[in-house]
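Need tokens for this chain, all 184 residues.
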Amino acid sequence: MIYTCLSHLSSLLNEYLDSYYETMENQAEVGAVRSFSTVEIPNKIILSLINMERETGIGKAVSYRSAGDNQVVQNATSWFFNLTFLMAAVFDEKRYVESLEKLATSVAFLQQNSTIRLQNNFRFTIEPITLNIQELSNLWGIMGGHHYPAFFGRIRLISFDSDQIDRVAARILQPDTQTTPNKE
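Here are the structure tokens for all 184 residues:
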């Protein structure tokens, strides 16, 4: 689900940037942000996962579904996560102004499309987050020390569901109200 969300977001962002700048090249991709040699700088918007946090505001609901023939199937409880991601303009230093323009256009796209729907009717929301200077310094240090213009965001409520069946039980269709006399 993590890659599905980021790659779908990258695909939508590519469509938007291609129409905005009237080009037919991939201008955004999912990848790691790191220090690049001058030969391999991608000159693209890079979407990268920074962190996953468990969403604790949602109660634990046990999942039951009908299995036919008067049976009920219990699945494992879903886990919900929020993903912190980085959208960095990784461009050659000579193209710094272009990197700022592409980043601003990409942020405008996210602002206009803060709810993204996938094919399976799953949707997620995107919101901006702010990191303080120490958090930024630590993050860029971990990623190799090279700073790129960037936007930090959160993708809310990613669900991890298990298809594993925990239990199968008989469905109660009606209460048994008949009593048999006690023979003593």
